[in-house]
From TrEMBL:
Name of the protein in its database record: ABC transporter substrate-binding protein
Annotated ranges, domain Solute-binding protein family: 93-426
Signal peptide: 1-38
Pfam families on file: SBP_bac_5 (PF00496)
Keywords noted in UniProt: Signal, Transport
Family (UniProt): Belongs to the bacterial solute-binding protein 5 family.
Predominant localisation class: other
Top-rank lineage group of the source organism: Bacteria
InterPro entries in alphabetical order: Peptide/Ni-bd (IPR030678), SBP_5 (IPR039424), SBP_5_dom (IPR000914)
Keyword Signal on entry: yes
Entry keyword annotation includes Membrane: no
Length: 527
């Protein structure tokens, strides 16, 4: 793979509707009103002589260290850290800190990058192969996504601008992992990595901006100013960028309507109102929500050990109805884990909504009257509402869902990994199939496959895809996804949208199927 190659509203429910629809309306109200700090400055249209970009974002960063950020909060790192490889809005992989890259030989086990020679970090220190080596090691040691680089066996720097990564097992998606989307390629300076704790509250990148701690208030707003060392000064479009944490969807909408923010990472519950207000809307499907049936051996719920039962659940759920009720025009029904147009997507449906088929399969498996299914879920992005809607559908077939909702993500993860629940509500971003395997469905996916289910055919297809070139991997990835659908390990229902609202004076705000995350380094003031 070469450096210039291609990479890969809810509607308001009517009275008398089922409980989950009433819950959907309550969910849209939100929990709190976040004050907008006056110290953050005005919007680009405020009349200030400076070019100021104010961004509303729904979550604060866990840390300013790219290795400790969740990918959902990557925006905070992308302002200050250039990645090794840049993923453009059209999905193409483009040079950034690396000028070129490729796998050496066949089998996707040796990967080499050539670095840009004219780069200095914001602290003035140079970009070198040794610094990149230290960054990758830091990511492997500290990141919650470190499993994506678990196969990295050794890293060498044969010369000051060459990095060579040797793998113990094939990994065909290193170019994607070293983009801004996965944070593994967002490189910090050598002096900062020598004192890694400093990265928690300040930036030390080679990106267009630098975090200004003096005008930043943790968990409220984060202020960035231009990086005087930046190698590509023509790409710096603002004199100041302020990211304001706006956790409530309605408060956030009010902020952009009144000009207190210029761009907003938004919630689908306010999309119709944003459209009516004349805001620019960029959106694309991003994360799927559904049930993960982890008790595939039937240890907790014997019915789940029969593939016919798991398939019956897929036939029983009315994805179109649920999607329209909860997301309106902004959701995408799905029975698979991969987005349309991406490697692995299967254009032919396997299930569809077929109540008669669902009843037939349940009867054949010995459960004509259904069974009881305990389910753990979370509240993030309406996951619990989707599961409640699924429960209403399944009840018609005698499947009684006993729902436990855990709003605390850490506790949710602990309960999930304990293995005491046979199924749980899953929210997962659509990723390359190789990454999905590591995080979701392979036996070593410890969080999301707590019972360590395995399937020989699935494992074989995955391993073949891991060593294949781009063209053949696309075909094999499709077979991997098809096998997952046949096994019915999951009951996906909907791809939720990634939404951005922007005011007319800001350009470049894009969310596409090939790059669903709009990147603030692309945004610019319209004259």
């Amino acid at each position: 793979m070469k450096g210039n190659g291609a990479s890969l509203v809810r509607r308001r429910p009517h009275p008398g509707k089922p409980r989950w629809r009433k819950a959907a309306a309550a969910f849209a109200v939100g929990l709190a009103v976040v004050s907008l700090t006056a110290a953050c400055g005005g919007g680009t249209g405020s009349g200030s002589a400076d070019r100021v970009l104010n961004i509303g974002f729904p979550v604060p960063p866990e840390s300013m260290d790219p290795a400790k950020l969740s990918t959902d909060a990557s925006l905070y790192a992308n302002l200050a850290y250039d990645p090794l490889i840049y993923r453009a809005p059209d999905g193409s992989l483009q040079p950034r800190l690396a000028t070129s890259w490729n796998y050496v030989g066949t089998g996707n086990k040796l990967f080499e990058l050539k670095l840009r020679s004219d780069v200095r970090f914001s602290d003035g220190s140079p970009l070198t192969a040794d610094v990149v080596k230290t960054n990758i090691e830091h990511f492997k040691k500290t990141s919650s996504s470190a499993s994506l680089l678990a196969a990295v066996a050794s890293i060498e720097a044969p010369d000051p601008l060459t990095v060579r990564v040797s793998l113990s097992q094939p990994n065909p998606i290193l170019p994607v992992l070293f983009t801004q989307d996965f944070l593994a390629g967002n490189v910090a300076s050598g002096p900062a990595l020598a004192q890694p704790d400093t990265l928690a509250t300040q930036s030390a990148g080679a990106g267009p901006y630098v975090l200004d701690p003096a005008t930043t208030v943790s968990k409220d707003h984060y202020t960035y100013v231009p990086n005087p060392q930046y190698w590509n000064k023509n790409a710096v479009h603002y004199d100041r960028v302020v990211v304001k944490v706006l956790t409530n969807a309605n408060t956030a909408l009010a902020a952009i309507k009144t000009g207190q923010v210029d761009v907003l990472r938004a919630d689908y519950t306010t999309a119709d109102a944003a459209k009516s207000a004349g805001l620019q809307i960029a959106q694309t499907p991003l994360s799927f929500i559904g049930l993960n049936l982890t008790d595939r051996a039937g240890q907790l719920v014997p019915a789940l050990g029969d593939v016919r039962v798991r398939q019956a659940l897929n036939y029983a759920v009315d994805r179109q109805k649920i999607t329209k009720a909860l997301f309106g025009e902004y959701g995408t029904p799905t029975e698979q884990i991969q987005l349309p147009g991406e490697d692995g997507y299967n254009p032919q449906d396997f299930y569809g909504h077929d109540p008669a088929k669902a009843r037939q399969l349940l009867a054949e498996a010995g459960y004509p009257n259904g069974f009881t299914l305990p389910v753990l879920t979370r509240t993030t992005r309406g996951t619990d509402l989707i599961i409640q809607a699924m429960a209403d559908d399944l009840k018609q077939f005698g499947v009684q869902v006993q729902l436990t909702t855990q709003p605390d993500f850490q506790k949710y993860t602990q309960d999930l990994t304990s293995g005491k629940y046979p199924a749980y509500g899953v929210l997962a971003g659509a990723l390359p199939i190789y990454a999905m395997g590591q995080l979701l469905f392979l036996p070593n996916a410890s969080v999301y496959n707590p019972q360590k289910s395995s399937d020989d055919q699935l494992q074989s297809l995955y391993e073949q895809a891991s060593v294949a070139d781009d063209a053949n991997r696309a075909r094999l990835d499709q077979q991997v996804v098809r096998r997952l659908v046949e096994l019915a390990w999951l009951v996906p229902v909907v791809f939720t949208p990634n939404l951005y609202y922007s005011r007319p004076m800001v350009g470049g705000v894009e969310a596409t199927a090939k790059e669903p995350k709009a990147n603030p380094v692309e945004w610019f003031p319209k004259s």
